[in-house]
Amino acid sequence: MPTYQQLLDAIDPRLEPAEQVFELVLGRIGEEMFDSIVALTSRRLMLASPARGSSIQLENIKAIAWSGLWSSLNIDLKQPTKRIVVGVSGPEWKQRARAMAETAKTLLAEAGK
């Protein structure tokens, strides 16, 4: 399993100037076969997998919540109204997913002002 630093190094070339990574986790989005990197930055939520990559602007995120019962990070979008579920395994990644959800609450509250 890759380390936090290896994942950070993998997404670094995709960052915009002055964009800062607050948290990132490794998990499976929906029914995908491969793990994806989910990174919360100062400007967006990045979703990067071996097959593709995409990003969601913070303004389009309604909420990010951690579900300990299902070991999943639930990302709710505003438009289209949709939930992205990221299954997270391993104690380090679960801890980072919880931290991402807490950081997202603060970021989204500031963005809503």
Describe the structure in your own words.
The chain is an alpha+beta fold. It is built from two helices and seven strands. It has a seven-stranded antiparallel beta sheet with strand order 4-3-2-1-7-6-5. A hairpin with a 4-residue loop joins strand 6 and strand 7.
Essential attributes:
113 residues, 7 strands, 2 helices, globular, alpha+beta
Order of strands across the widest beta sheet? 4-3-2-1-7-6-5
What is the count of β-strands? 7
Shape: globular
Alpha-beta classification = alpha+beta
**Helical run tally:** 2
N→C terminal distance: 39 Å
Topology:
Blueprint lengths: L3 H8 L9 E9 L6 E6 L2 E5 L4 E5 L3 E7 L4 E6 L4 E6 L3 H21 L2
Antiparallel strand pairs: 1-2, 1-7, 2-3, 3-4, 5-6, 6-7
Short structural description:
The protein is 26% helix and 39% strand. With 113 residues, the protein is α+β, with helices and mostly antiparallel strands.
